[in-house]
């Protein structure tokens, strides 16, 4: 193994360590972990939805709505309206019909949202078509 190869591997680590020391000295903290946790949380929530909505077209439509409404954050809250969760239910408590754990369980929110889209629009695809035309669903 060449020394230059080792330097290429070590340099980013050294730079990160130097940045961490400088940040700590200045009283700051490097916080890469929460962003990473949020990403893995969103991807695991998407995986739950994909299992619950196996049809690709329906899942893609559901996913587009959720991405616009909450960014796949099951705790997303609209401060102006009080809409809550992945699908921004209003009032949020409507999701209790899908389960008592609606505030914290993405699967419960997905179930409620899917039921809502199916009953009101006929399917997630039709709900997405409405959303595109109106900017809400």
From TrEMBL:
Coiled coil: none annotated. Residues 1-37 form the signal peptide. Gene3D superfamilies: 1.10.530.10. Pfam families: SLT. It comes from the Bacteria. Keywords: Signal. Residues 62-125 form the Transglycosylase SLT domain. This is Transglycosylase SLT domain-containing protein. The lineage of its organism: Bacteria, Bacillati, Actinomycetota, Actinomycetes, Kitasatosporales.
